[in-house]
Amino acid sequence: MLPASAPSPADKDGLHPRNRHRGRYDFAQLTATSPALAPFVTTVHGEASVDFANPAAVKALNQALLRQFYGIDNWDLPAGYLTPPIPGRADYLHHLADLLAADNAGVVPRGKGIRVLDVGVGANCIYPIIGHHEYGWRFVGTEVDPLAVRVARQIVAANRPLSGVVDIRLQPHATDIFSGVVKPSEHFDLTLCNPPFHASAAEAEAASQRKARNLGTGRAPVPVLNFGGQAHELWTPGGEATFLWRMAEESAHLRPNCYWFTTLVSKKDTLPGLYKSLKKLGAIEVRTVPMTQGHKVSRFVAWTYLSAEERQQWRQKRWAAPAAPTAPAF
Q1: Signal peptide span per the entry (predicted)?
Q2: Rounded to the nearest 5 degrees, what angle is found at the Cα of 318, between the Cα atoms of 314 and 321?
């Protein structure tokens, strides 16, 4: 079997119109910008590609994409940590921008006045990198793994575009979501999260083996996901449903602190329980936004506890709206 090829234009159908990664990767340009990628580039069916079953190749590709498109020259991860697929991460952020724009006369609020909380930022720090570059937003990233916190902070410190706009915080309690890291006086326009989807190490390993077979090269199945991942990044007791139940419960304690809470939801079966929890907790509006990348269909759920009047006051105070009247103190 030949190495897995880069996604074709058809494979990337469905990506957000503002996503910089629609269509094929330009490997000639990527290797010119990042020569370290060159040893991993092969020819498959007459076109340049990398072996997506090779974690080192995936990391080198990410380093090249981050340098070329987002101005990040210094990005590296410890062995075994999650190396996320950048096109999909960018898509979530662009759809979040649209979520804000829908309440702002179709205009995406930009700049440092918009604050975003990334729950589980990981060592890779991908969402803050992309979100700040594309929209100028400020980020707080939380993480339960001390090593991941240290690596993410190193990435922020080593790249001038991230200076002063990304704050990485250690979540001291592994089962908490917002408690312990969000200050009572803080306000966020968005929260985002890519939760651990699996319920056990065995379930995560089975998914790893399936992906390895799908991306295989005729060798024995690769023993880890090509994108890597530590245990806390891949699985949690009770799986996605339990994690998101805890997130919903904790979000209710931050009702006035956030405009939109959001999270990716991998499994359709998780949605009814999450909807039920949010209704019980008094969420005023809940939206489910589908996202597509080729044959892969995903989604995120967004909810708010703010009334229409409270949201209008929030926008007038925090978003740069032309000719907006001065709102009462929040």
Answers
A1: none
A2: 95
